[in-house]
Design brief:
about 100 residues; mainly alpha; 6 helices; about 80% helix; about 0% strand; elongated
Length: about 100
Amino acid sequence: MKEREYLIELYMLYGNLLTDKQKTIFKKYFYEDLSLSEISENINISKSCIGKTIQIIENKLYNYEKKVKMHKKTRDICKLVDNRKLNEKIKKIISG
C-alpha cells in the first residue's frame, strides 16, 4: 500500500485525536495536495513549522496504529469476510 494512502486511512481512523490545527494541515497537505509553501501562506505559519507539524502528525498516526491496531484489525476482518470458505461455514451455521 502506498504510504500516502496508508496515512489517509490512519487519519480516517484516528484523525479526531489530532488538534484542529493538525487536522487542517493534514487535510491541506494530503487531501488538497498543497505544498508546504502554499499551506504556509494560507494559514500564516512558517514553511518549516508546517513541515515539522506534518512529521508530528505522521508520527502520531503511526503511534496510534502501533498501540490500537485498528487499521490492522479492520484489514483482518475484511479478509475474513471476503474468505468464501468462511462465508460457506457461516451460512451452514446460520441455517442450522
